[in-house]
User: Fold this.
Amino acid sequence: MTKVLVPSVCPYCGAGCGFFIAVEKECATGIEYMPDHPVSEGALCSKGNAALEIIYHPERLTSPLKRKGEGFSRISWEEAIDLVARAFGEAVKKHGPGSIALLSSSKCSNEENYLIEKLARLLGSPNVDNCARLCHAPSVVGLNRTLGAAGMTNPIPDIANSKCIFIIGSNLAENHPVLSRWIHRAKDAGAVVIVADPRMTHTSWMADVFLQLKPGTDVALLNGMAHVIIKEGLVDRDYIAQRTRGFEALAESVKDYPPEKVAEITGVPAGDIVRAARAYAISPASSILYSMGITQHSTGTDNVQAVSNLALICGHLGKPGTGVMPLRGQNNVQGACDMGALAEFYPGYKKADDPETIKYFSSAWGVESLPLGPGLTAIQMIDAAATGEIKAMYIVGEDPANSDPCSQNVHSALNNLDFLVVQDIFMTATAQLADVVLPAAVWAEKEGSFTNTERRVQWSCKALDPPGAALSDLEIVCLIGKSLGLDFDYPDAAMVLAEINRTVPQYGGITWERLGKAGLIWPCPSNDHPGTPILHSSGFRLAEGRASIVPVPYRPAAEDVSWDYPLILTTGRVAVHHNAGSMTRRSPSLMEREPDLYVEINTADAVRLKVADGDEVTITTPRGETEAHARLTDSVKRGVVFMPFHFPGTNILTTEVTDPEARIPEFKVSACKISRRD
Amino acid sequence: MPVYIDISRCIGCRSCEVACQRVHGGSGHINVHFVGDSASIPIFCHHCEEANCTVACFTGALHKEGERTAFDVDKCTGCGLCKLACPFGVVWTNKIAHKCDLCEGRDAPACVTTCPANALSTDFELASRRARSRAARAAAYGGRR
Assistant:
């Protein structure tokens, strides 16, 4: 019996850890670690260790399905593709190309995202987006404006070179566990770690300074730190003069944020704000790591800009150990954005509302016209489905019925569509609402390139064949494209990557041949370019090569506590689950560790609510109500409760209010009330 | 070589638990315990020099082999005395005894390689070397900056 080790990239978070899948007799029999992987060095978190459990799960979709009354019946691929092509063709003919929308997936490879983006545009629809909208849309908007590029500025292993690591709104110890090895390495070399979070998370265990702020007050905290840094003269004057614009306006605007006032808004002691600000500013190399705690707010774009302001006034960019690091949540959310699966961009972040972009891609794709953007974002698509503006939708590997805020409205909106096709590996809550369901392959059953959070493009090899009639997303998209009369003749992923090399400048030199063990970090414009691990080392890709410092006033979150809803609900992740949970909730070894939805309540609040540990409680917001087990803890402050969003109940509660620019919903702050169920 | 823990590094991600379970056919030998809201500690076999479980084991199924506390499945009667004898609660019985075998046959125990935070190692001195290095830097820089 021969055992083959197939190199693979983990399908869960954006860290992009590598491992080998051991294959015997065309069956995945185990995982072997990859000690020479540049990011993970052989390590894998609990989700990575359990990754193979979903491959052979009995609930895998193995045949195309068609709605038949309340249930589904199996159909052939020919019939399925014909149904999809006819429905989309009709919608375009009857109601115009703006009546169709495509939701691409940050779980799919770069090649697949590129083709889904291309399919939408060639059909004439500007409406294509992916779930980056729900995680890092504010980073894309905010960092493109301030720094001229939206990715992590420095690679993950470079965190070890940092002398001060400021983690705000990220529970990376649970959500990107391998990053903690690099943080500990920095700590052993004398780095100070500052963590700002409304919860005392596992990440806060690493902190030297812990700032437990009230949810939604991040801008106030960051402005307060900027106030201290400017007032005490700890700014990098040369850097500000040579590399930035807009400092004076910031200096003026943060005058209103003395630590004492910020302490009142955020609940963080003034002394800690000063300590954190000094530590960040005077260290020779400081980095900021952030995630959803910064972005999932109605002030998400402001939060991101406040983060980048801090880095810019201290000159902590463009050198080893520095940087602004948005940590991405899914294995290819960076790549999905790079490939243009976003309403406002074509591939390579070419602005969809720019006629130059249209000209460029019209000639690259050999077509006469392309739709001018921006199209509808993921959340707007759902609204448009509800009003009947969108008639047909194609959802690939996403579960908006679980992952969008106020999820009961999503159900009725999707039901309102004339035609919904969902392509996934399991029968998700969204797939239940579909007219046609297409069975897709998991990561191990296909090949392609994936871009992790540090912009590292890695090739993941095919280890197995998909079950039953399931096909890779690439094959399915090509079948649909061809039956709609488009030239979608791509025999494999490498062929698509070759086209990406020609059309996306950042990926110009990231050819299939060069994607060896360690991958390549974009921008990599040509075949002899080594890749660019550290961005902004020689200026910014903005006017005059200068970054923008944008003053941001503090705005409170959209919802605040009231007499009826006296508690603030914030949401997040736990170590053993991933996003909407359609994969991890089917993984036995993860489910046995975290089987149910729970709500963390401060012990003092629990006494007042007469709730004991383990009690069943009802959580109610103006949107709806959910049941969960109470977990009493002192890791959340009084007045704040926490729920993980991996279970269907949580997003029944969350608010639909979005950031005005990035259109990300405010998942992190909802007013709620809790009562014990008797 | 037994596995050692640098408690200051454990982030409570439970990767070691899932990895151990994975390589031992579904039953793991390492358990992460949470102490309030402020710490997590993996609990596993110490491979004690004078191991109570080997003293209690009257058939010699559990016995010392150099540093390891080894287990000979053929001699195990499943009596459960080892479980009673272990002061750390890391030997358990389900028909036969189960305990950490240091992943015999692998280059390193799975929990050590998989640990994202480098909290587990087979180097007894590692945790104290790290602490000394931090102390030296603190002294040189006059404390935390």
Observations:
- Chain B has a mean pLDDT of 92.
- The beta strands of chain B are 4-5, 31-35, 39-43, 62-65, 68-71, 92-94, 96-98, 120-121.
